[in-house]
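Entries read chain and fold; for instance:
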Amino acid sequence: PSFIYAIQNLLTQEGYHHLDFLTFNLLNQTKLLSTALVVYVLLGIRQSLVQVVALVMLLAGAFLLSTDTGGGTEAQASRFWGGVVPVLLASVCSGIAGGLCQQALQRTARNSYLFTMEIAVYGVVSLLVVMLAAPEHLARDRNRILTEGVWTGWEWRTPV
């Protein structure tokens, strides 16, 4: 799941740059739908009728926002391929990783603290590998991090 979460983070960042905040946030919530589907497939857990109706409403809202007709053809293509598609793929990644985590914690009775630490460590390693191996347009900050360091631009207040 760590590698999937790392890919999800990169896709989310890519989509964020091409969408307005309302569209991004609503499309990002489609991860609830993908998580519900993955949990049903992996664990057989069904959703209630109210939950299914809410998921359908979420999907309808995401569909309506993703079919915005404003702007020229080139702007629409950039918005769709650079924004909508990466965010929806990130939502699918989130659903798969979330379902796998739930399966690992419930079916195999893993220690949740140890599992969380494993996810964190493997996530950092995955992000480093992806950052170094990704093409330039997917790793915008790579050169800055490599030349100026990870903490560039941070102040003492940043962690707060």
Remarks:
- The two ends are 28 Å apart (CA to CA).
